[in-house]
Amino acid sequence: MLRYAFFGPVGTFSEAALRSVVADAPAVAMPSVDATIEAVRSGAADVGCVPIENSVEGGVPATLDGLAAGDPLVVVAEVVLPVTFVLAVKPGTALADVERVSTHSHAHAQVRGWLRTHLPDALYVPATSTAAAAQALADELAGGAPAGFEGAVCAPTAARGLGLDVLAERIEDRAGAQTRFVLLSRPGAGTVPAPTGDDKTSLVVFLREERPGALVEALEQFVTRGINLTRIESRPAGDALGRYCFSIDCDGHVSEARVGEALMGLHRVSDHVRFVGSYPRAGGGRPPAGTGPTEDDFAAAQGWLDRLRAGAGS
Ligand SMILES: O=C(O)C(=O)C[C@]1(C(=O)O)C=C[C@@H](O)C=C1
């Protein structure tokens, strides 16, 4: 049986994302994104679930950097969840009593406007996750150490599950916000799911150093093959100022000719390309087909070249 880990504690959105894929399997809650990634890397877990990007606050640096460095890992599935937040307090606490509010930095960024309007003087206390903030209030309620804050911004389920009161619901500034989570594994047999016809491929590309046009050259590999990028982010490579790698998601599966050829092209023009998985797109809903070459065009071109090489002429 596969061993699962998720960015915990119990009650995080990451747990909800994992549970939407595997409802019942035992899973270990890890205290951070780094610890979840490390559990998979070390073999303590086979699959780990972590957030990778939010529609409002963008990429989750710990996940992007964890995938770019260290022993390679691959994404085997993605989950997209709507995110909505509540302000949770110990029973009996009124809004006027809330002087400090704690939550994960990505969640804080999504409720800043609400806090400015309703709790303009409240101090922000960073927490390792939304659920960790709620858990600290529940621990205080049970007679444990003071949490160090009166309000926690967390998922409605976390507040309910811990016996906290909800002072305000739907406090996110942008209705309809979503977070994308990834399930990670060590690479190996069976970790590239079969193509479904609606897949995504993730890569980290390290450009050739100090070369004018290096990024354009890398992007051309996708353009000329009619491949749509769904995300591109630069992250510091970490070895020197001015050195970046590019975390990229594109449409398509590594088994498709166009994606395979783009990967070979990137390999030719970059210092290093890290393959981070091909996996089904969450929820389907592929964007309209582009006007570039089709898989049939790629197959026809390959057949034509094979015939030339066999001496059949053009
Ligand atoms: O703290 C959690 O509950 C998480 O799963 C992390 C996380 C994130 O880092 O993006 C997930 C979704 C929300 O956008 C806020 C926090």
TrEMBL record:
PROSITE patterns recorded = ACT (PS51671), PREPHENATE_DEHYDR_2 (PS00858), PREPHENATE_DEHYDR_3 (PS51171)
Q: Is Amino-acid biosynthesis included in the keywords of this UniProt record?
A: yes
The protein's site described by Essential for prephenate dehydratase activity is found at T179
An example GO BP is: L-phenylalanine biosynthetic process
Please give the catalytic activity noted in the UniProt record: prephenate + H(+) = 3-phenylpyruvate + CO2 + H2O
Alphabetical UniProt keywords: Amino-acid biosynthesis, Aromatic amino acid biosynthesis, Lyase, Phenylalanine biosynthesis
Please give the InterPro entries that the UniProt record associates with this protein: ACT-like_dom_sf (IPR045865), ACT_dom (IPR002912), Chor_mutase/pphenate_deHydtase (IPR008242), Preph_deHydtase (IPR001086), Preph_deHydtase_CS (IPR018528)
Q: What class of enzyme is it?
A: lyase
Disordered: where is this region? 279-298
Q: Which residues form the ACT domain?
A: 203-281
Q: Protein name, please?
A: Prephenate dehydratase
